[in-house]
Amino acid sequence: MQITITGQHLDLTDPIKNYVDEKIGRLGRYFDHVIHARAVLKHLPHENLVNVADITVNAPGHIFHAEVHNADMYAAIDLVADKLEAQVHSYKEKLQDRRNDHPTGLAAIAEAD
Predict the structure, then answer these.
(1) Which of 9, 30, 63, 87 might form a disulfide with 43, Cβ 3.0–4.6 angstroms?
(2) What one-character DSSP code corresponds to residue 111?
(3) Other CB atoms closer than 10 Å to residue 86's CB: what's the count?
(4) What pLDDT shows up at residue 107?
(5) Where is region (Disordered) located (predicted)?
(6) Are 35 and 2 in contact (CB under 8 A)?
(7) Per-residue pLDDT tens digits for 81-110
(8) From start to end of the chain, where are the E strands?
(9) Rounded distance, CA 43 to CA 104, Å?
């Protein structure tokens, strides 16, 4: 999976980049066909919650997106990763349910008898 990390009004350090890589890499547990992930980390000094983590993940047939505002950048990354993980998990379960609703092949013939 290719991960692009950009920062707006923020200096991206290696620990932040590694943290984002680690958190987005967790999505591979649920969905191994992720093509590309784009993370935009922003610092907004004029807002109360000054840090924003915005991540978009492209997978075949679906795009997952989440955005979180938080005072702490690491907490924002954690929360946005949790949101994406929930979206991917839900999507994966939906796909599995659809496959199980319409049995095909020999199993469908055996059940019909």
Answers:
(1) 9
(2) H
(3) 13
(4) 54
(5) 94-113
(6) yes
(7) 999 999 988 888 887 776 666 555 555 555
(8) 2-8, 36-43, 51-59, 62-70
(9) 52
Residue bearing tokens 């954690």 = 78
pLDDT tens digits, one per residue of 55-75: 999 888 889 999 999 999 999
- The domain over range 2-112 is classified in CATH as 3.30.160.100: yes
pLDDT in tens, 22-56: 998 888 777 767 778 999 999 988 877 789 999 99
Helix or strand run (H / E) with residue 59: strand 51-59
Q: Which residue is associated with the tokens 């707006």?
A: 8
Percentages of the chain per state (helix, strand, coil), in multiples of 5: 45, 30, 25
Confirm whether pTM is higher than 0.85: no
**Residues constituting the chain:** 113
**Spatial distance between the Cα atoms of 30 and 86, rounded to a whole number of angstroms:** 10
Specify the residue for token string 């950009």: 6
Q: Could you tell me which of 13, 14, 10 has the C-alpha nearest to residue 53?
A: 10
